[in-house]
Amino acid sequence: MPALQNSAHQQLRADLIENIQNQQHRIRTDYPQTWNLLKQSRPDLTQNSFEIPTPEISSQQNLVQDLKPNLVSLSIEVSGEEHAQILRKLAALAQAPVGGANLPDQLYFEQQLGDMLGLTVTAELDGYRLPYTVAHAQALPHFPTHPNDQLSAHQPKEAGLSSTRSTFGWLSDKTHQYEKFGVALPLHKLPDWPKRRLDYVQWFKYRKVILINPTQQTAAVGVVTQIGPAYVQRFQVGLSPELIRLTKAWHPDSKGKMVIFLLDDSAGSVKLGQINLASRLKKEPSDL
């Protein structure tokens, strides 16, 4: 039995050291500026080898506790820097002229945002693509949830109430989440819209999307409830009054610029509404 326990010690030690060294390599090659900063502030995390004495059988718990703070600290440093870098790249992208469905470095952004948000983020799903991935947002009015709906039932009131239903009818889900977080997409600008109109309408109806304002580090999950805006030369996406506020779309530094992705939410588990990006930039350490 002691021999077996000692073998487990050795394997634990090897696994922990390999984990730390793998993260070192990732920072050193992909984020050299972060690596140089760590070398100055935490040289113990950037050493090339680890001279860790073989522990006694009774001290396995102590070994884990000794290495765990280093591993957690390194993970937090990497996550925060990576996520901040992604948002900086997206912010630069969002300030460029609006673009179609093809996003530069699409796979990179899909993978990195998916890791940051814990969601399946994609520019293409089931063979369907968004008309635009970088878009200028239009503020939509509230849409009625039933024939006798009144503006007094909605906030903020200054957005007004549409005199017509949404493209897909009364937004009368029980908690009115579709009305609160509704998104308009100009599906009529898809290249084969005339031939596939019914197909597109059925697939995009109440489809979830994620809207990211990288300049203000805000994001929200919305649901497609409307076809529009009509004049895509000026606006390429429409947002409910609630989404305009949540994403800070009309902040002077943002000027309505958004990055949009589809969400793969076949399980229906992703909630509509705001996503706190700030918490992703300052990840709490998790148990290893």
Helix content: 25-40%
Q: What's the CATH H-level homologous superfamily of the largest domain?
A: RlpA-like domain
Order of helices and strands: HHHHEEEEHEHEEEHEEH
CATH topology of the largest domain: Barwin-like endoglucanases
Number of strands: 10
Given helix and strand content, the structural type is: alpha+beta
Q: Strands of the biggest beta sheet: in what spatial order?
A: 4-8-5-7-6-9
Q: Tell me what the CATH architecture of the largest domain is.
A: Beta Barrel
Whole-Å distance between the termini?
26 Å
- Largest β sheet strand count, sense and barrel closure: 6 strands, mixed, barrel
- Averaged pLDDT, please? 80
Percentage of β-strand residues = 15-25%
CATH class category of the largest domain: Mainly Beta
Shape: elongated
The count of helical stretches stands at: 8
Count of distinct structural domains: 2
Cα Rg? 24 Å
Would you identify the regions where 5 or more consecutive residues have pLDDT less than 50?
56-61, 67-78, 284-288
